[in-house]
Amino acid sequence: MTRVAILGGGPGGYEAALVAAQLGAEVTLVDRDGVGGSTVLTDCVPSKTLIATAEVATDAAESSELGVVLGDDAVRVDLARVNARVQRLAAAQSADTTATVERAGVRIVRGTGRLAPGDRVLVDLNDGGTDELVADVALVATGARPRVLRDAEPDGERILTWEQVYDLQELPERLIVVGSGVTGAEFASGYNALGSDVVLVSSRDRVLPGEDADAALVLEDVFARRGLTVLSRSRAASVKRVGDGVVVTLSDGRTVEGTHCLMAVGSVPNTESLGLAECGVAVDEQGFITVDKVSRTSGRGVYAAGDCTGVLMLASVAAMQGRTAMWHALGDAVRPLDLKTVAANVFTAPEIATVGWSQAAVDSGEIDARAVKLPLATNARAKMQGIKDGFVKLFCRPGTGIVVGGVVVAPRASELIYPISLAVEASLTVDQLARAFTVYPSLSGSVAEAARRLRHRG
Ligand SMILES: Cc1cc2nc3c(=O)[nH]c(=O)nc-3n(C[C@H](O)[C@H](O)[C@H](O)COP(=O)(O)OP(=O)(O)OC[C@H]3O[C@@H](n4cnc5c(N)ncnc54)[C@H](O)[C@@H]3O)c2cc1C
Known about the structure:
Distance between the termini: 57 Å
Radius of gyration: 23 Å
Bound molecules: flavin-adenine dinucleotide
Mean pLDDT: 97
Strand content: 15-25%
Strand order of the largest sheet: 5-4-3-2-1-6-17
Structural class: alpha/beta
Largest sheet: 7 strands, mixed
């Protein structure tokens, strides 16, 4: 029986554990902070739970056009209750995942693990003491943590990382979010909807520099309309606590005052003290473990998955890398990871979902594709629901009409991207996408309509 040891119980680790157990291996999962990992305990699950409340608050605040009359107090959010719910839900999700993994026959060891020569894994147990495992196959899936700037040390009260916001008992009156990538934009959008006065400090020309430019423009318009201030081309040099508030000093000397500051300036991999060098596992200059498309590292019998590889920092990708590692290691059918089929979503209001090739790749000539962009304002269901912002964008190959990518900006874009994702994965043509029935009236009707437009533009 192949002995598999996995370091890290996030989606990279626990999904791998499930596959390995299914394939008949003897599996040990070593985890330090709780099965489910940062995904469940501090990152993805808590933030999307908080945003679920923000969505309801947004809908309520914007419902007067639909004839809903709210009381004088408008919409008020009790953050202590929201955060208690977030923490309950995260703990329950971790317990569910633990039970699923144990039911599959995986042994869970609670502690901090590291690799050692001789196919060994050494563990400092959380309860004290040590353990030593021998493994034919090891998977490192230890994740990442928030990057901390030297002059902006979080104190857990006023200067916060995204892991610390769920201890807040009251809504920040004026929240400065530093960083306008996906995490910064999501929290800025969320707290704005919950009722905070939000300032987003962005070092770039626009928010979400890595996303579709048209989508980012829609979001910037919505932010401006909702009173969220974006300071673009503004780099935070330091963040200091002053009394009951914070002062963010920008690199050009300007200062921004707030009651709280949330730092969202990227992640660093948890790859120190793992014995990687001793076991021949190469990392890049930022410490991310180098892997190939089947999650192999340069160390013999050692695989890696998830945020510690820096390939694409998403829970779904971590899970796929972990499964792929086990399929490969245990001799099952395996397909190399294809990032061009990954669907991703930014959980702002509206949401921004993408899959496949991007507009930037089309514009730079990296791929030859035709594009159509259909504003949601023309969609009957959107009109009925009072949705004014957003669009569906579709890319297809010029000759064959094969769908190669798409962008959806809409409420619940994360759900609407699925037909496009399916089309990209299965190499469906715009003809096929256009021919499938959609419900009338529905937002997904715009996906089919976009396909019809591309079909008629030879
Ligand atoms: C605020 C935020 C929101 C996000 N939202 C989404 C989203 O909506 N959708 C999405 O797809 N992605 C989202 N992500 C990204 C997603 O959370 C990560 O990509 C995902 O957590 C990566 O999973 P992982 O398995 O690599 O690591 P993690 O989930 O970080 O798990 C790693 C585990 O390893 C443990 N560990 C570390 N070192 C050791 C050691 N030496 N020994 C034993 N255990 C160890 C840790 O305690 C942790 O439990 C979000 C990220 C952030 C920051």
